[in-house]
Amino acid sequence: MLSREKETAAYSLESVVARALTRAQGDLSGELAAYIPELARVPPDAFGVAVASVGGDVAAAGDTEVPFTIQSISKALAYCLALDVVGTPTVLSHVGVEPSGDAFNAIVFDPGTNRPFNPMVNAGAITVTGLLAGALGAEAFDFLLDRFSAAAGRPLSFDADVYRSEAETGHRNRGIAHLLKCSGALAADVDATLDLYFRQCSILVTASDLARIGATLANIGENPGTGAAVFAVEAVRHTLSVMFTCGMYNFAGNWAFDVGVPAKSGVGGGILGVVNRQLGIATYSPRLDAKGNSVRGIAAFQELAEDLGLHVFDPTNRGSALLGAFKG
Ligand code: GLU
C-alpha cells in the first residue's frame, strides 16, 4: 500500500511539510523544560518544521527562523566529532552504545563496565564532552561552534543567559560528572568538562539550521549547500546508529517503531531527524512531554514519516529515488 501523499499527483516537499505542521499544530499539551530556569521563559507556542535534502533543497513551514538552544541535540554532533578527534576505539572505551531505557539524566552506569550506557544520555554525553575537552583544551568550544556552524552552513552563536542559568543550577549534571570521574569514565577535569557541556547545549539554532545540519549528516558529512567537509564518514555511520537506538530518551523504542529514522531531541524543544543519504528533518516546538520530547515535534515527524514513507523498514521507502519525486 502506498503512503497517503504518494497516491496523489500533487506531490511537493513544501506541501508535505506544510501539512505536517497543520496537522500537528493544535496540540498545545506539554510543558516547558523549567528545570533550567531560563528555558521556562521562552515563548511556548512557536512551531516550525523544516526539511533539507542532500540535493540542497529546503522546505520550511511555520516558525523555522526562531532561535532556540540546541541542548541535547548537541550530544549527537559532539559524539560524531569526538569519534574523529580521539578515534572510535578510545570513545568506545569510555562510553557504550547500548540503549538504557532510562531517563536522559539518570544516574546509572553499565554495571559490567562502569561506563555510561550510551552517548545520548547525559552521563555518556558529559563523558564524550570530556574527551573533547581533554584533547582540545581551551580551543574545544570554538572547535564545536565552528563545526556546528559548518554543518548548518552559517555562523552560529550561543545563548549566554541559558548557559549561565544551567551552569548555576545544573547540580544533577555536576553530580553525574563527579561520579564519572570517580568511576574512571571521565578522564578530563570535571569543571572544564561541565563548562564545555553547558556551553555546547546553549548553542543557538533555528529549525532551518537543524534541518541543514541533518542534511549534512545525511550527505555522509558534507554540507550539501556549501560543500564543506564537516564530519568523518565512519563517524556519521556510528552517530546515526546511536541516534536510531538511543536518541529519543526513554521513548527511543517507540520512536524507532513508529517513525523509524535516526533522531535526537533536546529539552530546548528541537528534534533533529536524518534520513540516510536523503534528508535532514527538524522540528521546533518547546512544549515537552513527560519524557522530555517535543509534543508537536513528535506529531509532525509521525506525519512526515507516514506521508513520505520514511521509516527505514517501510516497504514504500524508495531510497534515494525519493529525491526525484520532489523535483518533479
Ligand atoms: N543541557 C541539558 C541537560 O543536561 C540537556 C538535556 C536535554 O536536552 O535532554 O540537562
Topology, please?
Blueprint lengths: L12 H12 L23 E6 L4 E5 L5 E2 L3 H13 L2 H7 L27 H15 L3 H13 L7 H10 L1 H13 L6 H12 L2 E2 L1 H12 L14 H14 L5 H7 L4 E3 L4 E6 L3 E6 L10 H14 L13 H6 L1
Antiparallel strand pairs: 1-2, 1-7, 3-4, 5-6, 6-7
Helix pairs in contact: 1-12, 2-4, 2-10, 4-7, 4-8, 5-9, 6-8, 7-8
What does this structure look like?
With 328 residues, this protein is of the alpha+beta class. It folds into 2 domains: 180 residues, DD-peptidase/beta-lactamase superfamily (Beta-lactamase), CATH 3.40.710; 129 residues, 3-Layer(aba) Sandwich (Beta-lactamase), CATH 3.40.710. 45% of the residues lie in helices and 9% in strands. It is built from 13 helices and 7 strands. The strands form 2 sheets. Strands 2-1-7-6-5 form a 5-stranded antiparallel sheet, with helices on both faces. It has a two-stranded antiparallel sheet with strand order 3-4. A hairpin with a 4-residue loop joins strand 5 and strand 6. Helix 1 runs antiparallel to helix 12, helix 2 crosses helix 4 and helix 4 crosses helix 8. It is globular, with a radius of gyration of 18 Å. About 4% of the residues have low confidence. Glutamic acid binds next to loops.
